[in-house]
Design brief:
mainly alpha
Length: about 140
């Protein structure tokens, strides 16, 4: 089955995935936010299938409100839920791929610490997972 996503659909997926990495990086402000962003982005660029093709292009039009982590979360968490709903409807075989890809990126972002991630990073990971599962 061939799936054609609109430009808006692609932007939703990219906002959700790259936004999740941005949230993880912001939650790691006391640690190594640049390394968290790099590791998460590498994980996203390693995706395969339809999801991999969509995430291969960083969304230049992505404008996250960086006034606070809360403002970023207000954009990203609903986008994660919307992306899952969109894929479940239009490409059900890709919904699990997207979820796994985002969670691998979240885990990669969290593993920049020696030892265990901070409670802040762990909590952000939980919020991202809940948003993915809300659809």
């Amino acid at each position: 089955m061939s799936v054609t996503l609109t430009d808006q659909d692609k932007l939703t997926l990219r906002t959700a995935a790259y936004g999740a990495v941005t949230l993880m990086s912001a939650a790691d402000a006391a640690g190594s936010p640049h390394k968290a962003a790099t590791e998460g982005s590498i994980a996203l660029s390693s995706a395969t299938g339809l999801v991999g093709h969509v995430l291969a292009t960083y969304p230049k039009e992505l404008k996250l409100d960086s006034k606070s982590v809360a403002a970023i979360a207000d954009q990203v968490l609903p986008a994660l839920t919307a992306a899952m709903a969109l894929l479940k409807e239009q490409a059900p075989e890709e919904a699990d791929n997207f979820r796994r890809t985002v969670l691998v990126a979240v885990e990669a972002s969290a593993r920049t610490h020696q030892g265990r991630p901070s409670p802040t990073v762990t909590d952000m990971s939980r919020k991202i997972t809940e948003a993915l599962d809300a659809a």
